[in-house]
From TrEMBL:
<keyword id="KW-0175">Coiled coil</keyword>
<dbReference type="Pfam" id="PF09727">
    <property type="entry name" value="CortBP2"/>
</dbReference>
<protein>
    <recommendedName>
        <fullName>Cortactin-binding protein-2 N-terminal domain-containing protein</fullName>
    </recommendedName>
</protein>
<dbReference type="InterPro" id="IPR019131">
    <property type="entry name" value="Cortactin-binding_p2_N"/>
</dbReference>
<feature type="domain" description="Cortactin-binding protein-2 N-terminal">
    <location>
        <begin position="16"/>
        <end position="93"/>
    </location>
</feature>
Length: 94
């Protein structure tokens, strides 16, 4: 019984080591071009304590309203230009 428990324990340890090696591979290259190092660096640098979610939402809302206003003006200008083009075509036909 003790032998079986030791065997199961050693199998679990070996499995845990294999999983650890897959999740955290040993990299010999520590250059700036190493994608694993860049990913780790980016993940650690992604957290910003000064990030203000409310300010970002306000900025997004302002940009969205500006874009909507631009689209309204664009549609108005497009309609006016279309009318002017039709009027010019009618004048040329006469």
């Amino acid at each position: 019984m003790l032998h079986e428990a030791c065997y199961q324990c050693s199998v679990r340890v070996k499995y845990a080591e294999q999983v650890k090696q897959l999740l955290y591979p040993k990299r010999k290259s520590t250059s700036a071009n190493d994608p694993w190092a860049a990913l780790q660096r980016d993940c650690l640098g992604a957290f910003d304590a000064t990030f203000d979610e409310a300010a970002v939402k306000n900025l997004y809302g302002m940009q969205l309203s500006t874009l909507e206003n631009f689209l309204k003006q664009y549609k108005i200008a497009q309609t006016k230009l279309k009318q002017q083009l039709q009027e010019a075509e009618q004048r040329c036909e006469k």
